[in-house]
Amino acid sequence: MGDYFNPIRCMSGGQCHLHSGGKEFTCTCADGYLGDNCQRVQLCFVRNLSNKYDNFTIIDAVDNASIPDDKRGAIFTGKALAFVKDHSFATTNGGRADVDRYVIILTDGMPSAPLDTANQTKLLRLSYPNIRIKSIGSGEFVFHKELWTLALTL
Known about the structure:
alpha+beta; 29% helix; Rossmann fold; Laminin; two-stranded antiparallel ribbon; single chain; 2 domains
């Protein structure tokens, strides 16, 4: 029967439902995934820098993160980076000029607006020359080129 009848259609642990003799399909995505093929992860949380977090608190927040059904949709990594640039490192939110700044991005590497993501990464680096951006692939299928773009864009 070949690959036509047995392709990988639903990613990230999604359930595939075949229709029309296997010519069409729909996916029921696992929690935290969305898209026609469950190809997108949407997770974004920004922590106020005026609070201190230990490793346990951060790991617990990531492990227990969930996305309400009414908040799922397109993934705008660029908007998250713009928010970090404009708000997260502000002195009113605990930002200090004398310390290195870190941004850790958990993503599948498939933003809805990749050019905006690249532009916002550049703007963030220009605004904070001492910033360190780390990108971590999340999910069963990850677009690694985008992870490199996030981490290395100058």
